[in-house]
Amino acid sequence: MSKPSNAIRSSVPEKLFNAFNHLFFILAGITTLLPFVNLLAKSLSSESAVISGTVGLWPVGWQTGTYRYVLQNAMFLNAFQVSVLVTVVGTALSLAMTTITAYPLSKPRLRGRKWFLLLFIFTMLFSGGLIPTYLLMHNLGLVNSLPVLFLPAMVNVFNMLIIKNYFEGLPDSLEESAKLDGAGNIRILLYVVLPLSLPVLATIALFFAVAFWNDYFAPMIYITNPSLKPLQLYLKELLVASGGEFLKDNVDAALNTTPQSIQAASILLATVPILLVYPFLQKYFVKGVLIGSVKG
Amino acid sequence: MKRSTTLAAQTAPPRRPAGYFRKLRSDVFKEWDLYLLLVPGILFILLFKYTPMYGIIIAFKDFNIFDGYAGSPWVGWKHFEKLFHSADFVRVFRNTVIISLLKLVFLFPLPIIVALLLNELKNVIFKRSVQTIIYLPHFLSWVIVSGLFIDLLSTNGGLVNKALVAFGMEPVAFFLDSSVFRSVLVTSAGWKETGWSTIVYLAAFSTIDPQLYEAAKIDGAGRLKQVWHITLPGIAPIIVLMLILRLGNLLEAGTEQILVMYNPTVYNVSDVIGSYVYRMGLGNQDYSFTTAVGLFEAVISFALILSGNALSRKYLQRGIW
């Protein structure tokens, strides 16, 4: 680079850089949002417009019948209910289980702590694999049941370590003074530690909820019964059936919609719950990730 | 359980470890409630994680579901010999490594660059809005992302093909074309995770001492020089750590994404170990062979992670976990 007068030289390229940098992020933002806008436009466009492929970012031949159809579709509604049920029950149980496991492991005085931790961490590094796991579920009679969608995921070692690290950061004096008052470990956990740990618990609860809501792999492996299929599995089948008989048979010809619009509407409706929790997620997740990256 | 340990401790000859177990026993007795909290978690991982590890023995047997684990005959290394001579496996292994490496080469540097650029944004509201938008795709499922891309890349009115046609090019059937499908996998993975992956680097920036920048400014270093001489060296340990973690996942090329997005026309370029085990194992019920394939993957991944951890300890003075 050339030498002359520092102050002037740096300001012009810097302005240029700033302009390009802003432009870059505006483009990045558009790239992220564009697919949604396109999908929304498709879901609200008429049959002829979608079939002729003229829909871009704005609906052509406005209609809302697609949403009415999807929201009245028994399979969609059933899948939605299954997903809500699995997410709520799974998150509650997993959070409880992960927390009570993290607490003793956060105490350096726990004799054998190293070995217990190793027992848990080893499961992150090595696994029996898909087939032995499937056979186990089969032998337990869990295939084609809803518990199989959350029971195996309940002790999430990664989340457990985040909570454990958070517990380790709490001052010991709290526990000691509660002990002097005669409280046992479980009482201390419930009434002293947990109320102080709401941010990390909220983060982990949201992580669990998003993971359960988005899970496709477990239902794909274990669920074949149509009435037990959660939303992601239903959506995947809807996508595969694109333009196929599966939808054509089911769609009323008078509805002025297409399988593509139905897919679009279903995808967007399945995203709504994520969008609803996203503001909360955002508030907590950065903190959660940071806690996680601090080594215990 | 407590009784049996007591009994064992009484009858066992006094060896050295007994001292440890006696202390453990007295601790368990003193703080039984603390240990009690551990019981459900341990039972769960024993059942759901360690029992399948025992199930790996079927990789060395001709397993059939009627004879079960114990009844099925041992066959030694038969399935591993088959594996190393199977053209299918070679193809699947190749695909796995290629897709992983493509993702590594294109998607590993990207969040670092984006994080550096984000760091240069001085307008807080603009910066926060950008972050809000680019973090979002991380929270969508692969099924949803796949749906978005199927639509975006469709030959019937997909925006990308519209643009191609507008520039006078032929439309491309992205999901059915073996020559471009891997790029679809890499691009959609980048779209989903790049924004989110910046977080860890942004956090690392905040650990850099601001005085270094002040000093550099006084010495006349421009922004680029500051990035090169202060920011990058400052986050180098995190970059290396992330790289090590990625290498440990070399044989997990994104199974869930691929299972959601691929189809028989592109199996030749996108079938990876995970998807192959799923199709052959559960689809064809070739349990023993696919367990062998899974074990092969698990052992290599385990070795990679352990070496990564050793490297990390040696050069970064911290382990991965």
From TrEMBL, chain A:
Domain ABC transmembrane type-1 residue range list: 80-280
PROSITE patterns: ABC_TM1
Recorded superkingdom: Bacteria
Main location, first listed in the record: membrane
Pfam families: BPD_transp_1 (PF00528)
Coiled coil start-end: none
Protein location: Cell membrane
Transmembrane segments: 20-41, 82-103, 115-137, 149-167, 188-213, 262-281
Membrane topology: Multi-pass membrane protein
InterPro entries assigned to the protein according to its UniProt record, in alphabetical order: MetI-like (IPR000515), MetI-like_sf (IPR035906)
UniProt keyword terms in alphabetical order: Cell membrane, Membrane, Transmembrane, Transmembrane helix, Transport
Protein name per UniProt: ABC transporter permease
Native organism: Paenibacillus cisolokensis
UniProtKB/TrEMBL annotation, chain B:
SUPFAM superfamilies according to UniProt: MetI-like (SSF161098)
Record's keyword annotation contains Amino-acid biosynthesis: no
Topological relation to the membrane, as annotated: Multi-pass membrane protein
Signal peptide per UniProt: none
Domain ABC transmembrane type-1, chain residue ranges per copy: 93-308
Location of the protein in the cell: Cell membrane
Keywords, in A-Z order: Cell membrane, Membrane, Transmembrane, Transmembrane helix, Transport
PANTHER family xrefs: BLL4140 PROTEIN
Family: Belongs to the binding-protein-dependent transport system permease family.
Protein name per Swiss-Prot or TrEMBL: Multiple-sugar transport system permease YteP
Species: Paenibacillus cisolokensis
Gene responsible for this protein: yteP_5
